[in-house]
Amino acid sequence: MRHIKILLMAAAAGVLLTSCYKRQFEPTFGNTTVEFVNSSQEMTFTGEYINIPIRMTEQSSTGAQAVVSFTGGKVTMLDGTSHDVLPITNDQEGYDNANNGKGDIIVTSYTVNIGAYDEEVDGEGLPTNNLEVRVPNYRNMQTLTMSFEIVSGNAGTNKTTTVSIERSSEVIITGSWTISGNTFEISQTDGAYQFTYSFQGQVPLTFGAERDGNNLTLDMDGPRLEGIQLEEGGPAYNVDIVCWIYNGSGIDAKNVVLSFDDAETVTVTNGLFMGFADPEDPGSGMYYQLFAPIAAGTKGSK
Questions:
Q1: Which of 30, 48, 251, 286 has the largest CB neighbor count within 10 A?
Q2: What is the DSSP string of the chain?
Q3: Which residues have a Cβ under 8 Å from the Cβ of 283 and sit 6 or more positions away?
Q4: Which of 123, 152, 132, 115 lies closest to 33, judged by CA?
Q5: CA dihedral sign of residues 197, 202, 205, 211
Q6: What is the CA angle 64-65-67, rounded to 5?
C-alpha cells in the first residue's frame, strides 16, 4: 500500500504577461437578403447559450444585417408548470424581471451582423452568423420553445424560425464543482472531457476523463508540475501528478469515478487522491498530496 506525505511548500509558478490592443473598424453593410438557416430546429440543453444561425442568401462581397424580433414561446419547468417565455430586455421592466427572477431568456442583440463572403472561412457555403440567446435558468427547465422573425426589409424566404429545446436525459456536468472545499473544473472539447484542478489557484493540472452515462472516469496519469519544493529553501523538482483512489487509509493506482446525481450534485464513488511520488526516493511508495484526500462517498456541488 502506498502512503501519503503532506506537501509543505508551494510550486514556483511563473506569470506570463501579455499585451493587447483593440482593432477599430467601420463595417460596410449592403442589403443582401438574409434568412434563418432552419425554419425549425430541435436541440437539447448543453449550457446557458443557444445559437440560432442566420445566413446571407448569396456570397456577397459586403456584409449584411438581420434585425430580429422575438415573437413568443413556452417554457415547461421541471415541476410540470408552464408559462409564456418572458424575455429580459434592456429597459426598466426587463431589469425588474431579471432582479425578481421572472425572466427566461436574454437575447444578446436583436441585430445580427453577418460578414462579407470569405472563401477561406465560408468555402462553398454562405456567410453565416448566430442569433445568441442566453437561458440563465435552463437547469430548471424541461422544455423551451422560442419563435423569432427577421423584421428588417432584407428578409428572405425563411424569415421565421421556431427553436425547441428539451432537457437531456444525461446530466450536464461541465462547469465548476466544489468537493471538500476544493474547486474542480470539468470541461468538454471536441467531445472529450477534461478534469482540472488549479494548484494553489494558479497552476492548472488537467486530467483526461471518459463519460459513461452520468459517470465520469478520470485518467490516473496527469500533467507534469514543474519547480516544486518539498521544503523552504530546498531543491526544486519536476514531478508527474497522479489522480488515484483513496481507500480511507492509503492510496491505490486505480481510476477515480465521479457519479453525478443531478446537475447540481456529484458523488466521489471511490475516493480521490491527487499528488506525486516522493522525488527524493521514488521507490519508497511515499506520495505527497496536493490537498487532503477525499473519502469515498463524499458529495460535492456545482
A1: 251
A2: -BEEEE--S-B-----------------B----EEES-SEEEEE--SSEEEEEEEESS--SSBEEEEEEEEEEEEEETTS-EEE--B--SSHHHHHHHHTT---BEES-SEEEEPPP-HHHHTTS--EEEEEEE-TTGGGEEEEEEEEEE-STTB-S--EEEEEEE--SS----EEEEETTEEEEEEEETTEEEEEEEETTTEEEEEEEEEETTEEEEPSEEEEEEEEESSTTS-EEEEEEEEEEE-SSSEESS--EEEEEETTEEEESS-BEEEEE-TT-GGG-EEEESSPPBPTTEEEE-
A3: none
A4: 152
A5: positive
A6: 155
Decide: 103 and 85 in contact? Cβ < 8 Å: no
The reply to whether the predicted model has a pTM over 0.85 is no
Q: What mean pLDDT value characterizes the chain? A: 87
280-295 burial code (b ≥16 CB/10 A, e <16): eeeeeeebbbbbebbe
User: What per-residue string of b and e applies to 12-34 under the rule 16 or more CB within 10 Å gives b?
Assistant: eeeeeeeeeeeeeeeeeeeebbb
> How is residue 284 written as a grid cell?
519508497
